[in-house]
What does this fold into?
Amino acid sequence: MKRLRQFLLLGLGLLTVSTLTACAQSHATTTKPVTITFWHGMTDQHQVTLNHLISQFNHSQTRYKVVASGQGNFANLQQKITAAAKSQTLPTIAQTAYTNVPTYVQGGFVTPLTPYLKTSDLKDVYPVFLDSASYRGKTYAFPFSKSARVLFYNRKLLAQTGLRIPKTWSELAQDGEKVQVQGLTGVAFDQSFMSELDDLIQQTGTPLVSDKLKVNANSQSALRATHVITDMLNAKTATTAGTDGYGSTQFFAGKTLFYCGSSAAIPIVQASAPKGLKWGTAPLPSYRGRHATSIAGNDLVLFKSASTAQRKVAAAFMKFMLAKPQTTYWAQKTGYLPLTKAAQKDANYQHYLAQHPTAKAANQSLPFGFQDVAFLGYPQYLVALSQATDKMASQHQSPKKAMGTLQTQTEKIIQQNR
Amino acid sequence: MPMLNAKPTLKSTLIALLYLAPLLLIVGVFTLWPLITTFLMSGYTHYNYFTNHVGGLGMVNFQFLWHDPDFHLALRNTLFFVIGVVPATVFLALGAALLLNRLPQLATFFRTVYFLPFVTSTVAISLVWNWLFHRDNGLLNALLRTHVDWLNDPHYALGALIIVCIWQNLGFNIILFLAGLNHLDPRYQAAANLDGASTWQRLTNVTWPLLTPMTVLITVNAIITNFKVFNQIYALFHGTAGPANADITLMYYLYQKFYVENQYPVAAACGVVLFGLILLITGLAALYFHRHAWWRGGQRG
It folds into this structure.
């Protein structure tokens, strides 16, 4: 009897141990996180901020893991995506401009976010960001690092010349003429003034390329809008940055009243502006009674090669980034625009804006922000637009000729890619 | 050495192939295969680069190049650039090498100085030149007492690129010329001296003809290198092809079509044109030197 009891106890013990082991094993298999890879083009402080948020996401749960990999600058990132798409070694998600989506869709390596990200998940996102997220009725791009064009101004020069921040483009042009005699330049543009031209033509009421892909580069109203900038350049009341790359270099020299630049440059301007330079930002001036500011930046896309489990993780990560604390943190640390209305209204963010008034202009531009329509051949169009502005700036080509060429080229690009 | 005199057999050829296999594999994978692919891709029409779908074969991409004003500009600029850089590089390098050859004490120092640009990163060099060329604060304008916007004025931008590339190419070619000069038989100079030849006569009738094989090598190498100029442009002009495309070359055009505009077959067609052009001009240069029979240094005595 005693032996039987010992035998039973041993059996029970073995059963308990084996059950526990099985439990532990099954627990181990269920907790092995699904890993997704994320290629981005963030560098320096922006990369630190992004890594912090990713780490937060990874620590917020045990089922998923995001592994980020910086690919250098955006040009490098694009080249890597192209090469990886060809060699079928794409990551799960990557940062890219929504304007690349048509190429990726044609290449068949990007997948819509819709099954994994519901419309209700995006309902709080500003419409201007969502407009560009869809292509042919499906949502492919998730807005991520977005910026707006703003007007930087030199406070000291404004006070010295008795001028105020211009509300319209004609005021801006007149200010340039007024200060020219004092050896000052009115406004500095980046290497290319294509964003400002895009804005001005949008302000005429008809965009450069409409949603229905009608090109409007050489209409009378577009040419008049182009003249606003070229007349300033020809009168030397405005300059382009040339090989300096960004107009901020000239703005820093302290002899230029205004600089039209990206809000993403604010942290860089803060870090590199000379100590004595007091500057501020304002929304870009209006033209013909309308306001329109182009929104630039990058989005996230999900690649087809990802497994269903990975796609779900990608969606979970995107939702995490849209949550108020993360969106607010991202906007405060990087200078990018807050993507949701909730983040914009957040007391914490409003407090931040009160303390950092230079971040206000981009936010104020959101109600009239717009993004170009994405179409197959957009990168070719962008090169053509850049060449047109370059010819007007460096060769003083007339708007009629440069924009006429752009009209023909763009129509041809759209036609060939239909 | 019986092996060297042995007649090749199937076995010995196979063994030789085995020894050559690693290099053949590398050349095959990284040179020949891309070359064949490029030739094929240049003929693809309605091509989807990512799915490898080929709509058909034809000359459409070459027709595109034929009608594209940017390609014409790139071709013109490339030819102008090569004509601007190659002869100047060859003659300046020869002059510097001849001078260095006369200064044995300082030769090592100057050789190092001239060679430094060759081993320094092109991007770093271009950034420094970017400052030197700056309109307002540049050293060049300060020295010349001018106010030229070298990099942003389309009239000067190609000239600026030519200056940078001549300067950068100089060091390597000086070293090659010095190597050539050191290998010349001093007895020719001694004989010319005895005949009472002046320095200039010795240079034009003795040294220069004897250096011809080296000159051919340097010229052909310079032509090939400079036809493919890209890095200097990209770094000097902040990622663009200069003001109003003033510095667009065939290689930059190819890059732009491939990486920026996603027009892969057009980029491939441009690569084929560039390949053909380099082959043609290199062949012509070699033929020119052969025809003029300046090979008196060795074989033809």
